[in-house]
Structures are given as structure tokens and as C-alpha cells.
Amino acid sequence: MSKTVVVLGAGVGGLATAAELRKALPAQDRILLIDRTFSGNLGLSLLWVMRGWRTPEQVRVKPSAAALPGVQMVTAEVDWIDEAEQTVRCRDGDPIRYDALVIALGAALDVAAVAGLAEALEAGVASQFYTLEGAADLHRRIGALKSGRLMVLVLGVPFKCPAAPFEAAFLIADQLGARHSGGAVRVDTFTPDTLPMPVAGPEVGKSLVSMMEAKGIGFQGGKSATHIDANTRTVEFADGTTEAFDRLVVIPPHRSEAATLISTGIAPNGWIPVDPHTLATSAPGVWAIGDVTALMLPNGKPLPKAAIFAQAEAEVAAHQVARHLGYDAPDTRFTGEGVCYVEIGGGLAAKGEGDFFATPVPRVALRDPSPGYHAEKAQEERDWLARWNIGEASAETSWNRRIS
Predict the structure, then answer these.
(1) Is 349 found in the same domain as 206?
(2) Using CA atoms, how far apart are residues 119 and 72, in angstroms rounded to an integer?
(3) What CATH number does the domain containing 15 carry?
(4) Which domain of life is it from (predicted)?
(5) Which of 24, 97, 327, 357 is deepest in the core (most CB within 10 A)?
(6) What is the pTM for the complete model shown?
(7) Are 185 and 147 in contact (CB under 8 A)?
(8) What's the pLDDT tens digit per position in 232-243?
């Protein structure tokens, strides 16, 4: 009897899982990939859109049937996941019964979580770069900023890509050019964490702070924002201090896309706890990967939310699903190894890499910035776009393209 496996979400993790499942399962088994739009992007491209090195259309991911042979692509909004009945209910459709389920729904921006944030975004005094449209709009606003203070503000943890706020600060300073280096525009970063990228350890955080200081970018850690006033252009913090800005760039709080869809308690704090090695949830026959998860490391901190991990987890989940269904598949385990690039402008990028499962703390090193790491990141983007945009017109994504 044929089996049905459902994958929810067509981001980095969901796409890779569906493709790997098709290789691992017999042809008669159905693989359904469900997504609301089947239109996305690779997270690393967002900062390049913000910098003006890419346009939104150049970096959209629009997977087609040609990119996923043997996978049924269902465009739908998921309303409910019933683990007890092993069904997924989509809006305007019949319930879909599954034999195994992989949840890869990712994380969404929660602009209502901080008082005044939605109003500041609506008024145009605050911007974000976590969407293609937001990143492109921010590029234009940076170009028009002649003087004042630009604040890069992390509004909550966890968030997608721990390096992103600081990478954004580097690239904003790079776009500002003489306006920043000459002192007309000041760039400062604020985060609730004591140091950048705390899960990678204090040495990595201190290295990033030193790199920012060398570029004239300020850093203030341990700053939790409680209110944004769009009229006065100020941010209030939990420690009672207030900071003024002329342009605010926010990393909005994130929330799980799956928390309200699940019938049982497998997402007690919104995020879904998983076995760190197999990605299995507490529900039989259900796995979760990528940004939707709360994968705890040996030091008690969660694994960073990053595409590199979602892609590695996809192979593990696919093989574990195949084994669960009774097939002879490898007992692949997630190792916790990963890399992260940090753009600093001028065609240079630093590279963090290491073992996040190391004990007692992750073993991560930050390599000095070089053109080679910048090129590696650009190649990753090209490979991803080429893999999924089969049938789409090719877009020019040369890493040395510059748009002033």
C-alpha cells in the first residue's frame, strides 16, 4: 500500500526535504509539499537587496514542477494540524491524511509584539530588511539619508540569522560611504544580548564588536526595547533609558508560523522542540526542521535559526521519515556543524564556522574578512537559485555587481 508524506513550507528546509524524500521513497508513495505562495528567497540575498547589489526579482525563488519531479506541489493555506488523526486541514480543501509529516513552516515577523513598532513602520520612520520589499525600500531610504543617527535595533530573540543585524550595520555604513566615515551619519547597533551572536561564544562576539568599532559602528548590548515613539523618534528601554534616532532599522520579534496550527502540545512555547539528532517531535510520525524548531544545544541555548542548518536538517528528516515508514534508508543524524558569513562591505566577508554540538559550549571560530569568503557566499546564492528556478529566466547574480 502506498504511503503519503506531507511537507509543510517551501522554504530552504521544506524544498530540500521534499527533494530528498523523493530520492528516499518508492515511486508509488506520494509526497505533498504545501505552501501558501511557492515564492520566496534565500535569506542571505535580503541584505544584498538592502545594499543595492541585487533587485528583488533577481533573487526570488519560484520552484516549479521541473525542479521537484515526483513531488505534488499544493498551493494552500494550512489551517490545522491534527497529529492524533494524522491529518492536515487546508483552507478551502478537504483534510489530507498523512503517514508522516515534516513541519518546515519557518518563522514570521511579529510587529505587534513591541509597543509602537507597527506605527513606526507605517509612518516610515522605521524599516526592516526581512522581506524583499522591505530591503529594497530600506536601500532607497539609506540613499536619501544625509545626516543624523541610524539605529539598528534588535527587538527580540530568537530571530533569523544571528549575524544579520551586525552585517546590516556594516553594509549600511558601506552604502553611506563618506556620509558615515566623515561623521555626518552615525550608525549604532542595540541588542538585548550582551554580545553579538552569543551562542557562538564570547570570543566571536568580541571579535564582531571590534570589527564594528574599526568601522566606526557603535554597539550597545543588554538593551531590551519596550516602546518606540514614531513622533519623537525615540526608543524606550527596559533599563529606563531612552535613545533618539533619525532612521530606525529594526529586527522585529519573530514568532513561530506553526504555533497556532497544532492540535496538541508539541509547541509549548510557540517553537517546536525536536530531538537534536533526528529532528523528531514528541508526536509520533512528525518531524520539524528549520526556523520553526527549538533545537537545544548541550549548553542549554537554542541552535541559531539559519538556512545552512535547515538544509542539513532536511536530509536527516527525510531519511528518518523513510526509516519510520519501514524503508531501508541511512540512519542519518544532524551533526550541528555549520557556517555563517558576515559581510562587512567593500567586497569582504568574514566566516564563522564550527561545531554547535560541542561540549560544554559550541566550538566556533570567526575567520578574518576576505574576498574569498564573499565569493563563497555569492556562489551559495547562485547554486540555490539555479537549483530551484528551473524554467525561470536566469538572473544576473554576479557577486561583484554594484549598484550605487
Answers:
(1) yes
(2) 41
(3) 3.50.50.60
(4) Bacteria
(5) 24
(6) 0.93
(7) yes
(8) 999 999 999 999
